[in-house]
Design a protein that fits this description.
Layout: E1 3-13, E2 17-22, E3 25-27, E4 31-35, H1 42-49, E5 57-62, H2 80-83, E6 87-90, H3 103-113, H4 118-131, H5 147-160, E7 165-169, H6 177-192, E8 196-200, H7 204-210, E9 213-216
Parallel strand pairs: 4-8, 4-9, 6-7, 7-8
Antiparallel strand pairs: 1-2, 1-3, 1-5
Helix pairs in contact: 3-4, 3-5, 4-5
Bound molecules: adenosine-5'-diphosphate and magnesium ion.
Magnesium ion binds near residues 42, 92 and 200.
Amino acid sequence: GNVVLRTEDLSFGREFALGERVNLAFHAGEITALTGKNGVGKSTLALTLAGLLKPISGRVSMDESMVPAHRENNVFTWKSRDLLGRIGMVFQEPEHQFVTSSVRDEVAVGPKSMGKTDDEAYAIADMMLERLNLKRFAPANPFTLSGGEKRRLSVASMLAAAPKVLVMDEPTFGQDFTTWTEMVRLIAGARDAGCSVIMVTHDEPLIEALGARRILVSEGE
Ligand SMILES: Nc1ncnc2c1ncn2[C@@H]1O[C@H](COP(=O)(O)OP(=O)(O)O)[C@@H](O)[C@H]1O
Ligand SMILES: [Mg+2]
């Protein structure tokens, strides 16, 4: 597919640059795996790609057709409502993104804010909860789930919102074989629907199952 997201001479990091002059293009219907050693900056790069962390220099931009009205083509300058439906992020610590007090509501938030009716949004939520083996927790508070369940919930919520670009930080961490397999199917489904999926991962079977393009993040490169 077309390029949906790109980095232009991007330097990313916090106090100092972890990577400089990074030029990458991410396509619709493509899965990219960001791999590399611990501490090298994968999560920092992921947050920068998702428009949540300010580049030190350069920019992250989207295809012109996806730029919201009255915004410049620099995803960091966009408001959260601009990012909605365009770029979704699954954080390395999933509790950072919970915004409701029930698992079912949590998954319905994205579809609702994308203009679905409540009935449609809850139908999507129920399907996601069923597929990711979270149905029995539907009324529970997201914060009461185990680590692996929280991660599944954050993946479910972001998939439900169907963004053009989905950035996920270690999505399969803590999953058993059944939930892992269903997650692979859901990610493949998002790709087939044209989403550009970018995942930080150490999960080799995941990379192979999805035939993902690999980008190795290494010190200074
Ligand atoms: N919130 C933060 N504030 C300051 N430094 C951070 C923060 N988060 C991570 N770092 C530092 O940035 C570097 C890269 O971290 P990170 O992007 O989390 O690496 P990775 O995901 O590849 O393990 C590390 O040296 C880490 O200590
Ligand atoms: Mg990380």
